[in-house]
Design brief:
Pfam families: 7tm_4. By secondary structure, the protein is mainly alpha-helical. The protein contains 10 helices and 3 strands, in the order βααβαααβααααα.
Length: about 300
Amino acid sequence: MQQNNSITEFILLGLTQDPRKKKMVFVIFLIFYVGTMIGNLLIIVTIKSSRTLGSPMYYFLFYLSLADSCFSTTTAPRLIVDSISAKKTISYNECMTQVFALHLFGCMEIFVLILMAIDRYVAICKPLHYPTIMRRQVCTNLIILAWIGSFIHSIAQIILALRMPFCGPNLIDHYCCDLQPLLDLACMDKYVINLLMVSNSGAICSSSFVILMISYIVILHSLRNHSAEGRKKALSTCTSHIIVVVLFFGPCIFIYTRPPTTFPMDKMVTIFYTIGTPFLNPLIYTLRNAEVKNAMKKLWHIKIASKSKR
């Protein structure tokens, strides 16, 4: 990657400079990250191994868990290592790579959530046409389009980052590289690039959130025509999706749809959607989904049975 400045590395200040709090950060986020990886990998393995979880909803949930795992890995390991490391430097190229990966997997999560909403809309509002509309090939093509869209978004973000000139200082008051904290260090007029950032990331977050909420309102409204049992099952699934949408999009909209101003709570808000949400998603989707829990139990029993035969 080409540098448009004299800075070769940045220093990430992290969440705190207090030695005691750094140890707390290490323990807390190590637990969060391990929990995130175990939870999401368990969902990935369960969906891949179970014959009962072959519907489009679980096909999309597989990719949501994959995006969550990669999204958390983009920021959490460095935060954990930096919390106990004396040297918290990150090279310019590593910083730009983190910006690219952060937006690639974050945008992928947004698109997968939209696909899950489409799947629920078709299943509930057009049940007779569901097998025809949501065929496996259609779902595969939608996932491919989601990856392409995420890649295009990330390319746009990395172009903005590479165009920022940095002439010092190189202290990033954050635990990761992103356009907002980098913009604070840029030696340039910030208005235009912030406008481009808001029109890209901000527009994607805001418009996607509005689309998702409208779609779920329509879905919930249509449930009045279903049986009591059908309403209960659909309501449980949709409630899980709505919780995930609110938890993810609320912080994203706060970060990416505002003027170039830094607030003290920015780091905590960023933690919530980069580390907190990927940790909570497996809990939300497993605790509120009987099919996933049953499939996990069956998979666990099969593993135990196969070991006992040996």
